[in-house]
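Technical note accompanying the year-one report. For the benefit of new consortium partners, we illustrate the data format agreed upon in the data management plan: each record pairs a sequence with a structure-token string. No post-processing was applied to the example shown here.
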Amino acid sequence: MPGRATAGWATVGRANRRRGEVEAVLDGERRILCLTLGALAELETAFAADDLGDLAARFSRGRLGARDIIRILGAGLRGGGNLFSDEDVAGMTADGGLAAAARAVAELLAATFGTGDGGGDGIDGGAGGAAANPREPQPAR
């Protein structure tokens, strides 16, 4: 990816929030995650969503299971230039445990779908709302 060097399996550098990138420490390595169009298409398929609006609505509920977190982190890692399968992600640990993994997912979704500040950079056309400002995912019971 232009502007970003890769070393083995991990991207190096700093996340650029304006490009929708976030950072997460997984398996002791700081990694850049980004939900590119390809990553979003992958998630649409994984979650049987008809379009990005359906995907945003699903995520805005804030209730994700472990498998959901794995899929979103995996897509974000691949979109950020990391070469990990979902199976690889399932075996990773996040610094800070499940709460840190859920926080990384929430930050990634907020960076992708907008901040809800009305600035027009969200999928909802700048209207704010739940889809543009997903709550931190809570493990499903």
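Partners are asked to follow this layout when depositing records. The longest helix spans residues 97-113.
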